[in-house]
Amino acid sequence: MSELIAFLEPDRAILDRRPAIIADLAGLLPDSCLITDERELVPFDTDAFVSYRRMPLAVVLPETTAQVAAVLKYCNENSIPVIPRGAGTSLSGGAIPQEDAIVIGVSKLNRILEVDFSNRAAVVQAGVTNISISQAVDADGFFYAPDPSSQLACTIGGNIGMNSGGAHCLKYGVTTNNLLGVKMVMFDGSVVEIGGKALDAAGYDLLGLICGSEGQLGIVTEATVRLIAKPEGARPVLFGFESSVAAGACVTDIIGAGIIPVAIEFMDKPAIEICEAFAQAGYPMDVEALLIVEVEGSDAEMDAMLERIIEIARRHGVKTIRESQSATEAALIWKGRKSAFGATGRIADYICMDGTVPLGQLSHVLEKTSEIIDRYGLRVANVFHAGDGNMHPLILFDANDPDESMKAEMAGNDILKLCVDAGGCLTGEHGVGIEKRDLMRHQYSDADLAQQMRVRAAFDPKWILNPSKVFPLDGRNGSQPGNQSADDRTAA
Amino acid sequence: MQTNFTAEQLTDPGVAESEKILRKCVHCGFCTATCPTYVTLGNELDSPRGRIYLIKDMLENNRPADKQVVTHIDRCLSCLACMTTCPSGVNYMHLVDHARAHIEKTYKRPLMNRITRGLLAMVLPYPGRFRASLYAARIGRPFAPLFKALPGLKPMAAMLELAPSSVPAQSDVARPGAHPAQGQKRGRVAILTGCAQPVLKPGINEATVRLLNRIGVEVVVPEGEGCCGALVHHMGREHDALDAARNNVDAWTRAIDNGGLDAIIITASGCGTTIKDYGYMLREDPDYAAKAARVSELAKDITEYLAGIEMPAPVNGASMIVAYHSACSMQHGQKITTQPKALLKAAGFTVKDPPEGHLCCGSAGTYNIMQPEIARTLRDRKVRNIERTKPDLIATGNIGCMTQIAGGTDIPIIHTVELLDWVYGGEKPAGLPDIDRAKSAPLVAAE
């Protein structure tokens, strides 16, 4: 299949040195942490952006920060590209390797190191899954707020790389708002600590720069995250509408009225059907669009907020309103929503877009998205964080049909451009990765990109860290390994 | 997920089925999170997604299995936690079964591995041989530490350590025949005698028959019924597994034709998962497909069956704290999650759910023999989680888990049906502690 997205051409000199590189790596890590067999490398050739695949040169799964540092130092000295990998759940191809690269996976760094309730903080290794932080402190009445749908599997390291969000980020903010500090290995193997349990650190907000840098500024091995006390109660409520446009307008008005529930999630009819088939959550099946609005607090607080929301929903012709009556029911409602992407696999292959738009544009963008999808003769399921304007059209296609696969990618690009043109941006929480890399020029001018690349080069002068991602391959003048111009290494 | 099979490859029904399964996977990675071996080893190759990818690569390229693939497939417990987690509905069970059969056909295992696996397949499914081997194990036990030190012999050491110190006498319940209902008859069922369970714990089926008879259900043990085939099935010995399945389908079909059956009762959930899959396993056999599907339809775990029956008033007071250990074959394989706990609660027990209940205890058929190190790590983790609930006893519905967990804790572990039988007027199960929380309630409250 021809591919829309190019990778950097592998460096022949590195490929030729493969046996020597493997021998050197074997001196840096125990056998159980090093994968070099060709068969065993195959499962690391992609992440959840499964349309694109590249075999890595080797995979290392370090057990300590010191091992991460030793490998990075070695790779920098030998100008070998490095691909950081969490759980490999990226939807933008953030963890897809390349033939001349070494994957550094943090899956063995999976311990919670410290829980400090008096400072409302937890210190965890980078490979700890998002949900396991909340599980570890649940009995004590705390939780970690950002909750990407893949929270069961995705790692905190990957969350930091992509500045992940989630349904409940409407109220609590995304990863960057809940990250207090990191221990990070720099390109040359030096280990730095940034931030800590205090609310602010002296000097520049480097943590803000690290969070969302897609593994290009260093490899985080430990994180200190904010713990939040659980609310007294929480209640997801289902609002069914006769049209997506009505549901979208309702969201705009809820936020416009100054109401901030914990979450406002949107599902259109195809998404409702997909999620109901998996979770049997009792979503209304006779509506065109559904909002899951979660309120929290004391009963009185929840009732008061709900009353205002219901009033707004009525103005938009809400057809059904159902409050969850039990913790089990609430859990099912969220299980269905959070499994939406995977559950889509029951009916089709998909790619998931991540454009974010100003709330006032929600209905307009939904309508235009349908038009684009129709134009390509495809199907779409919309399920997204409506309160944040973070859209996730799932473009459905048949991966065994090369023509349709190509159309799906092209439709995706058109939708992302639409989001930018509507005053939004390419990505709300999934990151740029390779998926949106070549659209960055639609969002930024060359001067903007050059400035970002200068920041990147300050952290990683040889561009060894996740080099094929984020920035368009052309126009990276002189900042490549061995001072080779990026244009020379771009795949034809 | 994209697949690459030729039309010719897809003429093989096993490959065709695997292709359909692979097409459903979207590579989201959710399954890694609940996989016991991934959680333990932190390597995607030892996760469902990694294994799916290895299998896909092997099948697409028409390649014989090799050491790498076998290593990671062998480490799979077949606990099927991934299937509970998978939002896309990927049937990992049928995929890995196919891969195991492919391995068995195309890969020559190292000598000691072959011997151990051959021995297990020759002994475990046959109660007579198994009983004899347990006596032999008592003599061999002092050699366990010696075997442990030699890599190829670790499974032998594990076997010796798992063998019980005493072997119960053979039970009458295991012999073919009918056990009539008492009082008003409300049903007729067959019970799977099985292979290892009646040797290790004959009391389980004795309790089942007593309880069922007492509530008006006739229980028959059909002539000719034997091991369900799960043990050899999980070794990839497709031929042996299908023979075992056909044998049981025949035995139960005779019972159905001769008096009818409301259910085929299974008291070991590991067997239940396999028997419920007979319909699929024999789908390509025109003589058996329909009969096997009927058998699978009738197969019920004892708790599943009892959940549909109104139980009498309890006779014995069960005011104890029970940690309910849900076997993987129960919760993931058969999706039976609420019934056993509801029955225990209705019988008067206080039921606790241990944390990380979705993670396997490491028993997994012959896994604790073939992969003793990972099995022990999982067992210790399971025991820690169970002990956190401070139970008086542990209840579960699978003999494998009972043996495995008992090796790591002093808390008594008893089959759910033995507890139910006792509460509703049966014998007190061996090992049941003499505790009455109703009398010592103030003490509990103070804790």
Mind explaining what this structure looks like?
The complex is a heterodimer of chains A (492) and B (447). With 492 residues, chain A is of the alpha+beta class. Among the domains of chain A are: 112-229, Uridine Diphospho-n-acetylenolpyruvylglucosamine Reductase, domain 3; 234-341, Alpha-Beta Plaits, CATH 3.30.70; 348-437, Alpha-Beta Plaits. Chain A has helices at 12-16, 18-26, 38-41, 65-77, 130-138, 156-162, 169-172, 175-178, 206-210, 244-256, 269-279, 299-315, 327-338, 340-344, 362-375, 402-421, 440-443, 446-459, 486-489, and strands at residues 34-35, 58-60, 82-85, 102-105, 112-116, 121-125, 142-143, 179-185, 191-195, 219-226, 228-229, 234-241, 263-268, 289-296, 320-323, 349-352, 379-385, 393-397. The two termini of chain A are 14 Å apart. The longest helix of chain B has 20 residues, at 238-257. In chain B, the strands form two sheets. Chain B has a five-stranded mixed beta sheet with strand order 1-3-2-4-5. Chain B has four domains: 9-106, Alpha-helical ferredoxin (Fumarate Reductase Iron-sulfur Protein, Chain B, domain 2); 111-162, no CATH class; 172-306, Rossmann fold, CATH 3.40.50; 321-446, Rossmann fold, CATH 3.40.50. Chain B is of the alpha/beta class and 447 residues long. In chain B, 51% of the residues lie in helices and 8% in strands. Chain B has helices at residues 13-24, 30-33, 36-41, 48-60, 67-74, 81-85, 92-106, 111-123, 127-140, 144-148, 154-162, 196-200, 202-214, 230-233, 238-257, 269-275, 278-281, 289-298, 302-306, 328-333, 339-346, 367-370, 372-387, 399-406, 416-423, 441-446; strands at residues 177-179, 187-191, 217-221, 263-266, 299-301, 321-325, 350-352, 393-396, 413-415. The radius of gyration of chain B is 22 Å and the shape is globular. In chain B, helix 1 packs across helix 7 (92-106), helix 4 (48-60) packs across helix 7 and helix 13 packs across helix 25. Classes of the chains: A alpha+beta (492), B alpha/beta (447). The interface between A and B is large, with 43 and 37 residues.
